[in-house]
Structure formats: C-alpha cells, structure tokens
C-alpha cells in the first residue's frame, strides 16, 4: 500500500525539540508530516497498538487523523482516545501499557501545534531515546514523497477514557471528606475545561464538597481570553481577581494541555511551585510510610527552593537533586523508585501516576491538605515558603559560556562560597543561607538566572549584582 504526499515537504528540524514536537500549523507542521511521523513512530517503538489523542487546537483533529493513517499503514492497530489532556495520555499509556501520542502545543500560543510521545507504560520519548530516530525516518519519507505501507494495515477503534482517568485520580486522593471549599479554576480555554468538571465536579462521578467557579472552560485553541501559560504573571490576573471577587478559598490555573497547575491563595497571591512541591511531598511521604517504606525518595530540580529538601528530610524522606527538565526527573523517578518529584515550572510527577506529571493530581493534594484544616491557604503556604526567590530572569548574551565564566571570576560574595556545575553554574554561600544559579538556554542565546535568599535585601543584592555582571 503506497501513500503519496500532496503537500510540500516540511523540514522537521524546525519542529522536533529535545523532548517533544512543537511547530506552526501548516508551516513547520502539517498533515503530511503527521502521517509520516505516525508511520515512523510505529517503526521506532515497534508498537502493535498505538494510542492517539489531541487537544482543543483547530488542527488537532486533522493531525490525529493523518497520524492514524500513518500508524495503521505501518501495521499497528490504533486506539483513538479523542479529546485528551497530556496527563490523560499518560494515564492511558500506563493503564493499557501501550505507546501513544497526544497532539498538543502545551502552553504555546494560537497557531502552534505539536506532539508529546510516550512508550508503553508512559515512559517518555526524548531525542536520546527515539525521538531523533522518528524525526530521521519521517523526514526521509517526506523527502521521498511517499510511504510504502504493509500488505495488511492495522485497525482503528475509539475509546473514551475520561471517566477512567477521573476515577483513577480520585482513587489516589480522597476529597470526599474535606471541608467545603470554594475554588476558582482558570482553564485558559484549554484542556482543564474538559478534565476539571470530570475530576473535581459532578460531570462523571459523585459531587465533592467543592464549589467550582469556572473561568474560560470553553475549549478554544485560539485562546480568546489570554494565553494558556500561567507561568506568566499577566495570565494570572483574571484568576486573582476572581478569587477575591468570589471570596474563594483558593485558585487554580492550568496550562493549555493541563499537565501543569499553578496555585493562588485566598488573597489572590501566587503560591510558589516550590511550596506546592514541599506540601505534596509531605503527603506522599506520609502515605508511603504508612505503606511500610522507611525512607521514601522525592526528586527535585536544582533551582527549586531549598525548603523542599529540608521539608523532605524533616518528614523522614530522602531528597535527590536533578537537572532541570522532565526527562531527567522521570529518569530519576524510575531509577530511585521515587514517590514524587517537583519542578519550579509547576510540573509534578507521581510514582502512582506512572512516574509521569499531572497538574490535576497535584491540585487534588493541595485541596486535600487545605480541606483538612480551617486555616486559609495563605497561612498553609507560609509554612512552606520561608525564603525569598528571584524568579527566573533571562538575559540575552552572545557567548553563554564566556558570560558564565565572567560571573564566576567577578562575583565577590564577601563570604566563603561553594561552586557547583550541574546544569549551568550554582554559587552557594558556604553556610547555606543563599544561592544563585545561571544556566544557558538550550534553544536561545539566553542565560537564565535564579536566586534564593533568607530575606528580600539579600535576594535583591544577589539579583542586582549578578545581573550587572551578566549584562555589562
């Protein structure tokens, strides 16, 4: 069976990244590319069954259809999952023990689409573990203008997994007995508008003691209200205002594919992902200890607040530091049988969720912790926010390595320091009171700066001193 392409061949190097695919609809990514990628995906994974779904972006249905054609032409059976969030893919891949893909561009703006891929059991696929091979094979087919499929193509069936996903998450966190909570949820017109009513509402399962106030639950990949990228403060403004207007207990904001969740307290003030990591870690450590584990492991990346390892150790767990990036976190999760992992970017990983990241499960843990106390969210978060962070600050530089060397040579702390070189360069006060990290972007001529200190004055001194060297 020969399938010819009818669109100009795109250059897949424009859309294939280190961990996934992100491209511009009908420019660097189109239906022919999706078809070729589907064929190559089956070849590389040697899959007999492939799970395929997509988000609410205008091109996702078209790309799912094209990918399906490619996958069945390669001989695999395809299970189309329909409309899914990224963590719904991970759930399905884990439960069915099958590889799969979701067409999504996560938090990228309108006009983009992409693909997140996983092997069976929600094991991630990166450039080092098959993504580069998929790119190479697919590009070859696009350049040749066709693919030659097997004599007997695979079959196609549909399966809706929303209810099973909601039931699975509720089996991990019991919210049925919490005090009544009023929760504003900003879905940003992304996939959380589909998953939130199923998991936290009464659309699929019995109602919980949660009054959900929805913001932008209408699925719309043109993002008419604001970009579905809550790491940017401007995209939290509506949520913050709604929390105050409705006198809500807490606010949740999800990115476009709903694998990340950001939290604001009852005053509308953001709760840092480091504090969320520490809060969830305490709950997961206690649960593991109740099951008989003596020293549960929690993974955190090197620019997460030091409150995380402090809290983990105080709770009887073991904290292990890793580089920034989900492939590193997931690899460490598997290697160390870790119960939980957290990143500053609001990605949260759970052993009980196939070592994959899910914003919804993290949100459920926070709601469970808040709902078990009469204290407001701000008071609860304050227990896990003893330090002052700069947030990530980017500087455009011509030579990243030379600029880092310049900072190391010129920065004078006036006290004894420790230098670490995992993922860029970290300089830390020998007494552990403060630290800063500078690391190069993998995709742009940028240096990323993060710092943490015990007080505002020290943080601002670190920030201003180091940025002055970088930008001089």
From TrEMBL:
Molecular functions (GO terms): phosphomannomutase activity
Cofactor: Mg(2+)
Superkingdom of source: Bacteria
Domain Alpha-D-phosphohexomutase C-terminal: start-end pairs: 392-467
EC id: 5.4.2.8
Occurrences of domain Alpha-D-phosphohexomutase alpha/beta/alpha (ranges): 15-131, 164-268, 278-386
Keyword Isomerase listed: yes
Pfam families recorded: PGM_PMM_I, PGM_PMM_II, PGM_PMM_III, PGM_PMM_IV
Transmembrane segments: none
Keywords, sorted A to Z: Isomerase, Magnesium, Metal-binding, Phosphoprotein
Enzyme class name: isomerase
Family of the protein in this entry: Belongs to the phosphohexose mutase family.
Protein name (database record): Phosphomannomutase
Organism, as annotated: Enteractinococcus fodinae
